[in-house]
Structures are given as C-alpha cells and as structure tokens.
Amino acid sequence: MNAVYFAASVPPLFLSARTLLGSAWARLALLLWVSSPFLIALAATGLSHTSCLATLAWAFWLFLETRSGRRRAAPHALLAAALSVAFFVRPLSGLGLGAPLAILWVRDRWRERQGRAAAVAAFALVAVAFAAAFLGVQARQSGSPWKTGYQRAVEYQEENGYRFSSFGPGNFTRFGMVEIDRPLRALTNSISGWERLLLDLGGWPFWLLLGLLLALLARGTGLLWGVFAGGAASVVLINDPGIDSFGPTHYAELSLPVILLFVAGVREAAARLGERDKGPAWPRERLRALPVAICLAGVLTAWAGWVPVRWATLSQIGANTLLPERAVARAGVGRAVVFASYPWIWPPCVSEPARHFRYLRPVSDPELTDRVLWVNHVILEEDRAFMEQYPDREGYAIAWAPDCTVRVIPLREATAAELPPALPQRWW
C-alpha cells in the first residue's frame, strides 16, 4: 500500500507549492518529490513513514485551505482528520510537524469572527473522535491508553531478558527512543541524520543545503520554517535517525518542508539573479533560469550515476535478507511452523559490500493463519514440544551452512549437531 500512499501525497504537495510559490515552482517541487530516490525507496517498504508523510502533506494543504477565505466547515474537519491520522500513525512525527499547523489554526480562529463557531465545532468533533480511538487502540495494544507500542515493546524485551532482541539494555533510556537523559549523544545522532537526509533525499546534498540557506532570505516562508522547526524539534532527541540503508527513515516526514523550502530558495536565487544583467552573453533571462538548470542537472546526474549504484546495493541486501524465506519456498514447505535462526542472517553471511544486518525473523499475523509460521529456535527439545500445540502443521528448521547456503531441515529428522541451542545475544 505504500506506493498508493506515496501517490496520494503528490496532489497536496503540488497544490501547497502552487499556493505558496506559484504554478511554475510547483512543477519543480513536484519533479523533486517524485524523483527523490529516498521517497521512492521508502514507498517500496512496509514502513509507516510513507502513510504519515502523505497525511501530513494533506494536512498542510488543508491548513492553507482554511486560510482561503471561504467560510466552510469541511476544510477544518478534514484538517483535524489529517492531523489526527498522522499522529495515529506516528505520534512523534505527527506532533512535530502537525503542532505548528494546529497552533496557527488556533491563532487564526482567535482572530476570526465570522464562521468561527462552525469551524471550531467541526475541528473539535473530529479531533475528539480520533483521540478516543487512539487511546482505545493504545489500551488494547499495550495495556494502557497512555503507553505506546514502542514503549510496550521495550518493556517486553526487558521482561524477556533481551532474548531474541535487536537491542540491549543500554540502547534505550527511561523515555524509550527519546534521549532526554543523553542529549549530547542525541545531538550527534541528529547531525548524522541531517547529513544523511541531505544526501539521500536527492543525491546532491550541497545544492540542497544551499537552497535551504537561500530560503532564509525568501519572503513568505514563515509557515514552512515553522513546520520545519517543529519537525526538527521532534527528531533532535531520538536515539537514531533510522538504520535503513536507503535513508534516515525517522527523518522521512521532514522531506515535506525541506523540499518546499528548497524550491523557495531556488525561486529566491532566480529572482536575485534576474535583477542582474551581465551583458549579451548572460542576459537576465538566462541568469534567472540558471538555478532551475542546476536542479535539473542534479536530478539527471544522480539518476545516471549515484542512484543505480545505490539501488544495486539495495537489491543485493534484499536478496540476502530473503535467503531463508526463499529456501523454504524452494523446499516446497506447505502449512508449517519453521524455526528460525538468530540472527536471521548469520553474521558471516551478510550482504557485501554494505554488510547490512537483519536480526529478527518475519512476524506472523496475529491470528496465526499464515501458511508458514516463523518461530525462534531455542533448543531442539523445546522446538519439538512447541509443535505439540500445532498438530495440523509440519515442523521445520533453517540452518546456515559454512558456504552461506540455507538448509531447511524437517524437525523430526533434525539432530542437536545440526540445530545447536540458540545463543540469542547482541551481535554488534
């Protein structure tokens, strides 16, 4: 579905850029958005950032609609829905980028006389309904309406002694993923995240940074800088920018204000160059077109050189992390329980040259109706005892050979030498 969500982000991105920057510059924003290797790769994953980004894009445009002067309750209700869905999907991202919009919306309503009651009522009804749903889901998921799934996951790993965990006791603070206790470490991680975002978003980090600096000189960008500041504040203390090899996923939602601000910076550069005249060789029209030409050259250069190499590496990583699943498929395994090794990819067998890791097995659906249920291998005796709970399924286990091929072993035929006791631990 992420490809659909990414496509759904395109209309509000274009409409917002057209409202703020004009039609010509909206087309440039659209080009940069749909050609971003980071956003395209993100849309090919199952991560929730794409859907959050799409709803934030709609929220941004709907906020602009509430300022259009048309006295209608619908944009206010839809704005509340978009902000709520973004918060529902990723609370920290939704709060960071959505809070500036919500604060400005409140200020606008405070100053407004006509239609204020209808707008506030429409917004409040939708927001309260989503808030109740959010707290209900939290209570069902984690046992408390005030506890997120991330917090409960950390608690579970602690309760389980960090067995089969991708992190250890020192990875999280008492605030979970937020490094309030270790601000210097968080700041270092944040600098790394921004470097990666500038590189991965388009493949031309210097020009992207220069465009953002030029946007500081542009008029009418206060709203964009407000959203940017809220988003930046939401990530400055998180414990990592995202381990994914195609970009800093925890910074993905910041792509919205960054790209719009960059286009504002390009427009500012074009306007300033258009005020100069360097003679017949460099007339104003040519100077004015130079920043856009540099953008187009950056996109073409990235897609001709950097992106193919980067995506070839991603393809190798994907093939590597799918080795166990493909081995099970080739073995013709039917309805079964398959006991997985830990880490999922044995460390000597990770993909070169990136050496990207994967620790955890696939997650089965909550109803346990998948054709193959993946379970952590512990010891052979416990594996066989576990199979008594599933008499209608066959038991298998995967094991890594020295040449990094994956063997699929029927559990009833397995020996302790083939499946030694698991040693769940941190491998880095």
Walk me through what this model shows.
This protein is mostly helical and 428 residues long. It folds into two domains: 2-305, no CATH class; 322-413, no CATH class. The protein is built from 15 helices and four strands. Strand 3 and strand 4 form a beta hairpin. Helix 5 (74-89) packs antiparallel against helix 6 and helix 12 packs antiparallel against helix 13 (284-321). It is globular, with a radius of gyration of 25 Å. It starts with a helix and ends in an 18-residue tail after the last strand.
Keywords:
single chain, about 425 residues, mainly alpha, 2 domains, 4 strands, about 60% helix
Number of strands: 4
Number of helices: 15
Terminal CA distance reads 33 Å
Total domain units: 2
The overall pLDDT, averaged over residues, is 89
Stretches where pLDDT falls below 50 for ≥5 residues?
none
Helix content: 55-70%
Helix and strand succession? Answer: HHHHHHHHHHHHHHEEHEE
Largest sheet: number of strands, sense, barrel closure: 4 strands, mixed
